[in-house]
Amino acid sequence: MGRSPCCEKEHTNKGAWTKEEDERLIKHIKIHGEGCWRSLPKVAGLLRCGKSCRLRWINYLRPDLKRGNFSEEEDELIINLHSLLGNKWSLIAARLPGRTDNEIKNYWNTHIKRKLYSRGVDPQTHRSLTATATTTATATMVTTNNKKMNNHSISNLNHDINNKNFHLVNGAEDSNSSSDVTTEELAFHPHNQLNLDLSIGLPSNQPKLSSSTINPENYKKLKQEPQVLYTSQQQGVCLCYGLGFQSNNQKCSCKTMGTSTTTLTGTTATNNNLYSFYQPMSFLESLN
DNA sequence: AAGTAATGCAACCGCCGAGGA
DNA sequence: TTCCTCGGCGGTTGCATTACT
């Protein structure tokens, strides 16, 4: 059974938006707010598909969008987040205020990929290109390891990092990206400084998580069941990943945010590389 | 100056999951 | 439980701009 189209294909404009259309859309959203994209075009007097309106608003018209070039810090953050999350652009974008998933996706494809290649790093696996080639050749040997990796608990991950016997994979489907890593390779690999301490605050009325697994479903869990910290006094959300590249004075301050703060790792990893993000409630909503 | 190739990015397409009926 | 709608996502396309010859 086919789905009905989201809008009438006829009688809708396509292609670049005109200034007038932009103004209509902005005006409508200012008055009525976001949502109900399907009916929006009709109400706003736009000959556009609802999806198109949503996209235009989110990627271009939203007032909180940051314009201009990506900073070096943003570059590195994107690279690190990508190594953790893979092509989950919306999740990556959620951690870069003012940037959209589309923008980051485009930036990744046009700039960062090239940058990583110039560093000799495979942008998909985040491993050295030579190591990737070697891994591909021995792919059959690592399948078992992959299966093990997918069930790795976070504490195991930290353990493995500490023992220089671990590297990240980009999800379960990436069957070529895992193998044993040499010390030399780790020294080369940008993730040799990656701190995976994943500190996620829990609402106090939710049960504490035990040491969760970091299998490929984890990002889904983060998204679908965001384990967030907020109190009635403190409308902040902490979803801090230890991503590296941060100085010591930028430690995550979760521990100061209340008693409900917890950590999934339960490890004693240092906080040297913790990078915290306190997002407004709108971020929370974006995860839902 | 003209033609061509490369690049950047806005927009589209099709699929998926959540949630309501 | 099933069906359907809707919002959202990631991949891809196509056009405008820039760089190069």
From TrEMBL:
The keyword Ribonucleoprotein does not apply. Residues 9-61, 62-112 form the Myb-like domain. It comes from Lupinus angustifolius (Narrow-leaved blue lupine). One of its GO terms (cellular component) is nucleus. It is found in: Nucleus. This is Uncharacterized protein. Its main location: nucleus. PANTHER family: F14D16.11-RELATED. Residues 9-61, 62-116 form the HTH myb-type domain. Keywords: DNA-binding, Nucleus, Repeat, Transcription, Transcription regulation. The keyword Repressor does not apply.
